[in-house]
Amino acid sequence: MSLATGVRRLHRAVFGAVQAGLEDWFLGLAARFVFASVLLLFYLNSAMTKFGSGFPEALVPTANAYFQIVPQVMERVGYDVSQIAFFPYGLLVWVGSYCEVILPVLIVIGLFTRLASLGMIVFTAVQTYVDIVFLHVDAKTVGTLFDRLPDAAIADQRLLWIFLLVYLVLRGPGAISLDWLLGRGAVGGER
Which of 2, 30, 53, 133 is found 20 to 30 A from 155 (Cα to Cα)? Predict the structure, then answer.
């Protein structure tokens, strides 16, 4: 046996064992941990700016939610929320505001993870669209893919967010999740 063959066999044996030992639980858990540490509080804090305080105001999106999600519509109606039709703009604000609270929590606890992750991908795409088209963020904030600078808040960071979410959509939350616990690994192919 040559040295190269021995090194390849050792490589396969070591990393095969590592992969087999971690495959069913580690990567899904790690992806959800990274999501929680990087994005959970970002989204929850952002969502809290969209709701009032006390009951029932804490359940109803405020004018601030409308301003953040549909700023040009708010401007058109003189910042009077009562002048905004529920369909489509009011519905968009309600769905967007609640998604910003519910989807991140579902991802972190590993419940309906694939659907929640898919929803967060759509949410991130809409968020990006609103930031660029309606809020007119500057070119430096948008950034450019394949440039030498990895710090653009939209092109670089959100691409990494979406990659993390795509992993969860395709592979699920792993065995350490409520999806796995409730379905014992059999529901919807969750592992």
Answer: 30
Give 42-51 pLDDT, tens digit per residue.
999 999 999 9
Residue 19 included in any domain: no
**Cα–Cα distance between 150 and 157 in angstroms, integer?**
8
Dihedral of alpha carbons 178, 190, 25, 98, sign: negative
Dist CA 171 CA 49 (whole Å): 33
pLDDT at 12: 96
Q: What is the pLDDT of residue 151?
A: 84
Phi/psi for 51 (5° steps) reads -125, 155
Q: How many domains, in total, are found in the chain?
A: 1
